[in-house]
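User: I'm new to structure prediction. If I give you an amino acid sequence, what do you actually give back? Let's try with this one:
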Amino acid sequence: MRRTHYCGEINIKNVGEKVSLSGWVHRIRHHGGLIFIDLRDRSGIVQLVVDPAISQESYNIADTLGNEWVISVEGKVRKRPEGMENPKISTGEIEIEVEKINIENPSKPLPFNLWSNKEIDETVRLKYRYLDLRRDKMQSNIIFRHNFILAIRNFLAQKWIYRN
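Assistant: Good question. You get back a string of structure tokens that encode the predicted 3D arrangement of the chain. For your 164 residues, that looks like this:
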């Protein structure tokens, strides 16, 4: 399956389109015979809906998923039912009706919750640095540092050009 969109790029304009997405399983919820999965990539989060009436095979696969597993999905973008929109995220008006799921890589249980605001012991964070860098706070720090250094380099490059 080849990715056609990033999770955070999809919006109400894409309703009716067939899309392929890849990312980490952020959260899973089982409700009334449906499985809801929040799929996350570097651009954001999108909600997937796995319905056994659409694909029993996909439903069986979704039933085995765990947090932080890497998956690829194909499905159709649809508008969320009235009153079920989530204004907190950019993709809150839509959801993906899953037709096919591939497990790219399962994950072992994590040593700490990446998405809680609870403080994590520094020795544990440093031991699992590769996981710690997935947290929103750490990613925003890296992006801020990149933009800050880029501004310095651009400023110095501009001064160097005008000096010669």
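You can read the tokens as a compact description of the fold. Here is one thing that stands out. The two ends are 51 Å apart (CA to CA).
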